[in-house]
Amino acid sequence: MIRQRLEIKLGQKMVMTPQLQQAIHLLMLAKLDLREEILQETQTNPLLELEEEGDWEDSAPESSIDLLPSGSETVDKGVEEETNPDPLMSWDYSLHEDMDDSGLYQEERSIREDPESDFSYEKVLAAPTTLEDHLIWQISFREMSSVEKELAHYLIGNINEDGYLAVSEEEIPEPWRTDPEMFPRVLSWIQECDPPGVAARNLRECLMIQARLLNLEKTVVWSVLESHLDDFMEMKYKGIARALSVSVEDIQEAGKIIRKLEPKPGRPYFRDMAMPISPDVRFYDAGHGEIRVGLNEEGIPRLRIQSAYKSLLKTMEKKDKTREYIEEKLRSAMWFMKSIEQRKKTILRVAEAILRHQEGFFRRGPLGLKPLVLKTIAQDLGLHESTISRVTNQKYAETPFGIVELKFFFSGGLPSQSGSEHSSVSVREKIRDMVHGEPKNAPLTDQEIMNRLGKEGIVIARRTVAKYRMELDIPPVNKRKQERVI
């Protein structure tokens, strides 16, 4: 017999406040999206207005709020209400920091107003549908939990221009690893989307997804992709034919089908898309061998609260509904401004941590890159891995070696004979340099590249060399005898 009864339990739980949700949302935005968000906020909140260049003052915020506490991105609601000060107590609020350079804004204005300039907002705003938008639209039709939806959006956000998933299961933040079945389940949903082969982790998986959609599982095509792709890339048709007990003609026919598959499913979405990139941070040589990093706020509007409302509040009664409305909008404006301030500080802190861990890159280029994972930076800064993921996604850095996404500095490692690790990015660069310097009449095979890397103390398999070579768009050895790849 089931009995119903009422119980009172006392406990504590963490909640996600609307203000914190807004702060996290702003942290995720790319630079152009942040600009639009700021302009939209000025339209919905009458207390906010844009600062003019002549109004910028050298002053710092009077107070700050830790929006992203260590180990969790939620705060206790009761604690927040006690620690959140009345915004009327600190009306004069400015966002200027010492690192800001008003010359950057002047430069942007001169480019915009120059009649001979190629700058055009239409080129930015009238862009075609991106691969990310296309995938999010498709996945929205599938029934899934809120956690699965968050993971799906995270994985889609980590699909590169070629359409490949650029993050491994081990690099997924902890909250999404509690259920070991969630990652493969959500990934399989994304891989069912258009374009065929999207979200694959390597070339073999990409081609096999397309072959499955064509119902080729029980054909020679499937057997070649599943077990002999490397030999097929090197055109070892006779060896494949013997291994599969079929004729060479069968392998050649299978090859015709395989060559019609798309090795880079994301390519159509990035063709002729010259999207301008404005870096969020700049790494520069400060002289005397010192490398520094600073924020680049070029193109980001500055906000202030309209002072006219200050005198208006003084004349209003405390229980006036209009006063209550203005105070509510004031608190909202203050939090929005502080969320933007916290976004800047968090991005800068992550960039400074990257500089500490990847100093070799800023002195020697990609060959100096070391293995680095999100967890290392998270522990260094006392933040959550998901926070570091948000900061590095769609955020760019200007370096002495070009503009790169902050995610570029995070890569897995390959073991070495000395016990240390080599970044997979630096190993790719070594392979590129070897191919660039190889004799034209005797190009290096994957085995020879593996042997040369082994002499440098890098432990790597031949299959891994072939994988990196394909990722660099370097043809196999028999093709390089006729065409040179740099």
TrEMBL record:
Domain RNA polymerase sigma factor 54 DNA-binding: 324-482
Gene Ontology CC, one term: DNA-directed RNA polymerase complex
Domain RNA polymerase sigma factor 54 core-binding as annotated: residue spans: 121-309
Renumbered residue ranges of the record's region Disordered: 45-88
One GO process term, biological-process aspect: DNA-templated transcription initiation
GO molecular function, one term: sigma factor activity
Highest taxon listed in the record's lineage: Bacteria
InterPro entries: RNA_pol_sigma_54, RNA_pol_sigma_54_core-bd, RNA_pol_sigma_54_DNA-bd, RpoN_core-bd_sf
Pfam family, one: Sigma54_CBD
Keyword vocabulary terms for this entry: DNA-binding, DNA-directed RNA polymerase, Nucleotidyltransferase, Sigma factor, Transcription, Transcription regulation, Transferase
NCBIfam families given in the database record: rpoN_sigma
Family statement: Belongs to the sigma-54 factor family.
PANTHER family noted in UniProt: RNA POLYMERASE SIGMA-54 FACTOR
Name of the featured protein: RNA polymerase sigma-54 factor RpoN
